[in-house]
Write a structure and sequence with these properties.
By secondary structure, this protein is mostly helical. Helix content is 62%, strand content 5%. It is elongated, with a radius of gyration of 31 Å. The structure holds arginine.
């Protein structure tokens, strides 16, 4: 079949070249945006008397019937078409006859595809923002439940200081709030309309780009037509933001995986989010968390693919840019799936408080508090640090912990020790005393929870 653009050439292309060139098998996803964009375009053409009002109405009605038929499944995508834009236009012309051919006045597929993609990603990004908020809520509710559950906090994956599990979880809420803010910001820059840039140079027709942009909910129009058709920053920016989000989910996954190992046993995942082994009957594998960690590499790859595609492109549109969609669609779909599985996985995760407590009791994680005790009694911190280190060494040697050393033994290291030291090195006190802003103390964790809930409700 000859192409719609037959004219200069015969429009008859090699069938392998056709398959290679075609994008409908992935850009069909933008059919709603393509049709809505075309409706706004027809309306603008009519309002500006570039076509008659009657013709505009006919085009809009025709486009609506195509939209309805695609939605209901009465009409199927013709995968022999080059792309979604050609498919809709050909379908419209076959339904309306010659008037259908007027739709593409003062427009090019170059500005049309840029428009569709911005509209599509605007919707997808808003979905991702909502899914991220669902996850923040799940994490924050779990944190609230465990605002007084004590476990060791780690540095270098070595037991460091006692913290509350609620505080630990709220660190992830903070990361995810930044993700939501980044994505919200990304939508602002995405929400600029390229339509009316035409092929690259604008048009001689008396178009109204602002009117058309407003019909489609854009807050501004691209100020340079060449940039309008060749800018894919919004895809790169979105995938950068999604990469950061995935990096957060991947770190969280790594902890969930560690925590659910026999070595830690800090949490037990619900059966609904684990799998068994086909050979080892004892296994309960955290596959969901592992897949999220794995898919993070995939999303980074999507970002790298598009950055690499764009880096050598001269202005304005080049067909290389058709490669943008598979990368960005894959990133968007992957992130959505990860968020959908992550939130309920966290919400249903059982926390093994006793194991956390036991781990907290074994690692000398109150040694800093022992040093702080001596500082409180007047010793400079460095000297206090040294004495506490010597006491830890003695405990390790004698198979004891700081809590079981006698006062006499303490006094042999420094006369400043008194009975009240036991209160200061009690794990509960250690956590409660960390009242500095943003610390693990209860009031600080409660404040984080409150502010996060306010953020979610705004
Ligand atoms: N399918 C194309 C894409 O995704 C649409 C734009 C084609 N423009 C062109 N001049 N061939 O980029």
């Amino acid at each position: 079949m000859a192409k719609m653009w037959a004219g200069r050439t015969s429009g008859v292309t090699d069938s392998v070249a056709d398959d290679f060139n075609s994008s409908i098998h992935f850009d069909y996803k933008m059919y709603k945006q393509d049709i809505k964009g075309s409706m706004a375009h027809a309306l603008m053409l009519g309002t500006q008397n570039i076509i008659t009002k009657k013709e505009a109405e006919t085009l809009i009605d025709g486009l609506q019937t195509i939209l309805d038929d695609l939605n209901s499944g009465t009409l199927e995508f013709n995968m022999n078409c080059e792309d979604i834009h050609m498919f809709i236009e050909e379908e419209l012309t076959s339904r309306l006859g010659d008037v259908g051919k007027k739709l593409h006045t003062a427009r090019s597929r170059n500005d049309q595809v840029a428009l569709d993609l911005r509209m599509y990603l605007r919707d997808e990004t808003n979905d991702i923002i909502n899914l991220t908020k669902d996850l923040i809520l799940a994490v924050t509710e779990k944190a609230e439940e465990h605002k007084s559950t004590i476990l060791p906090g780690y540095t270098h994956l070595q037991r460091a200081q006692p913290i509350s599990f609620g505080h630990h979880l709220m660190a992830y809420s903070m990361m995810l709030i930044r993700d939501v803010n980044r994505l919200t910001d990304c939508v602002k820059r995405m929400n600029v309309s390229p339509i009316g840039s035409c092929a690259l140079a604008g048009t001689t027709y008396n178009t109204d780009r602002v009117f058309e942009a407003q019909q489609l909910g854009f807050s501004d129009i691209a100020m340079n037509s060449i940039d309008g058709v060749s800018d894919r920053d919004f895809c790169v920016e979105l995938m950068s933001d999604l990469s950061i989000l995935m990096m957060h989910l991947s770190r969280f996954s790594e902890e969930v995986i560690l925590w659910s190992s026999w070595e830690f046993k800090f949490v037990e995942l619900s059966d609904a989010y684990t799998t068994g082994s086909s050979i080892m009957p004892q296994k309960k594998n955290p596959d969901m968390a592992e897949l999220v960690r794995g898919k993070t590499g995939r999303v980074y790859g999507d970002l790298m693919a598009l950055l690499t595609t764009l880096k050598g492109l001269p202005l304005a549109y080049n067909k290389d840019m058709q490669e943008d969609k598979e990368s960005v669609f894959d990133a968007v779909e992957t992130v959505k799936m990860c968020l959908k599985v992550f939130a309920p996985m966290i919400a249903t995760m059982n926390v093994c408080k006793d194991n956390m407590k036991k781990a907290a009791q074994e690692g000398f994680i109150n040694a800093t508090d022992l040093a702080d005790y001596l500082v409180k009694k007047g010793l400079p911190f460095r000297s206090a640090y040294k004495i506490s280190g010597q006491i830890v060494a003695k405990c390790i040697n004698d198979g004891k912990v700081l809590e079981t050393l006698t006062l006499e033994e303490y006094k042999s290291f420094s006369p400043l020790f008194d009975n009240d030291l036991y209160e200061d090195i009690d794990l509960k006190t250690c956590v409660e005393k960390r009242i500095s802003q943003g610390g693990t103390g209860l009031a600080s964790v409660e404040k984080q929870i409150k502010q996060t809930k306010e953020f979610l409700n705004q």
